[in-house]
Amino acid sequence: MTIIYTEDLTDSVADALQFVSYYHPADFIHSLKHAYELEQGAAAKNAILQLLINSRLSAAAKRPICQDTGVAHVFLEIGMETQFRTRQGGAVPTIQEAVDEGVRRAYRSEVNPLRASMVSSPLGARRNTRDNTPGIVHVEMVAGSRVGVTVVAKGGGGDVKARFATLNPSDSPADWIVEQLPGMGAGWCPPGVLGIGIGGSPEQAMLLAKKSLFSEIDLPALRARGPATPAEALRLEVANRVNALGIGAQGLGGLTTVLDVKVLEAPCHAATLPIALIPNCAATRYVTFFLDGQGPAVLTPPEPAIWDSIPDMMPADDAIHVDLDVLTKDEVRRWKVGQTLLLSGKLLTGRDAAHKRLTDMLAAKEPLPVDLRNRAIYYVGPVDPVGDEAVGPAGPTTSTRMDKFVAPLLEQTGLLVMVGKAERGREAIQTIRQHGAAYLVAVGGAAYLVSKAVQSARVIAFADLGMEAIYEFEVRNMPVTVAVDSSGNSIHRVFQLAT
């Protein structure tokens, strides 16, 4: 009988959540570097380079890769020959309690605070729990005398794109998967990995899809040796067909939308073919370790050499410098889809809650707390700063959630520019064209790199909303791409495919 101390589980979960917040798995970096070398489209190549630079900077500073530091998932395989105890001999906490304490410590760290995203109830007030608890815990009893643990921080941008269907046994799983991609948009921040669960019951298929994501990227090796099973054949077919769609990095077009496709399967009812799809974004945060009674897990960082060929900053040779403090419609009209801009000056922020308040105030004919005329607003909820940082990692959130607010803000406030990630819907694009405005994209998954451009930050409205308050950032050379220009042209391949 092996004794596993719950304190070791708690300490290991806390350490693992900190670890994955700033270290990409080495296989992901190698795959992303290969995608960068192959990429020919300027916008997609630029986006991949930002992801690589961000990875290097985050690892060096031990600060989050992405501002959405994820919901904590803990998958445990508990050996039947183990027993949990406490070192002090007191009452043994439940697995959920031990995990939650680890989550609480990790997300409240003073050295590297992580953004809490969990709300206590999906209905009603939806109050933030402030420490990202509870964690999502899955337990499986297995043979053996140790405990296997996979700790994952899964962001909302990936999970919100999850799909499930029950196909007929004669239907093509590959056809169904490929049909989902345009409708998923770019909010899951490709390039990443698609997880596929096939068979079982509906909830089992979804769990299989998620668990499939947490294994090493090995698609090149599979291509080299060829498929040995139907599941491997499906992986190759889906990867080839999805990448042929041309969605590319961040939906900007290009050769690499997925770095790998993973498949797990289970027996199912003869009349059904359950299938689930869950993507993993460019943050790709997970680590697996084992507890054997000898103390907390020891986590080994990737070798620093994997970042050696990656620069410390973005080249600015072809970028257009923009002074946000003297922004005019005439200047915005000169911007064209695909151009790289470097923003400097005062940049407002606002997400869902702030947009809702602003539009409610407009409807009630109340004065707004901030003048939006000829201003730019950035869809972001940053991580808290540490040390001399002006702001913590501050990457963009998915812009389609703000689509319903575009018309009232552009029509009634004179707002000129919006910055976010992924595509806009048809009506939002038409409104942007009608008002001679523009929509720009920052790279989802490059949050620490973006934050380096922020020189100062202050809350100017709705302070009670926490990270969703309206800030005024002073930025210097913040890299963005023109995604929708004042003529209504859209760069996003996913939008074109979906319509």
Main traits of this protein?
32% helix, 3 domains, 4-stranded mixed sheet
Task: Map the helices and strands.
Blueprint: E1 2-5, H1 6-22, H2 26-38, H3 42-61, E2 71-79, E3 82-85, H4 95-107, E4 136-142, E5 147-154, H5 156-159, E6 163-167, H6 173-184, E7 192-199, H7 202-212, H8 219-225, H9 230-244, E8 258-266, E9 273-280, E10 286-291, E11 320-323, H10 329-334, E12 340-349, H11 352-363, E13 376-378, H12 403-413, E14 417-420, H13 426-434, E15 438-441, H14 447-451, E16 454-461, E17 470-484, H15 493-498
Parallel strand pairs: 1-3, 2-4, 7-8, 11-12, 12-13, 13-14, 14-15
Antiparallel strand pairs: 2-5, 5-10, 6-9, 7-9, 12-17, 15-17, 16-17
Helix pairs in contact: 1-4, 2-3, 6-9, 11-12, 12-13
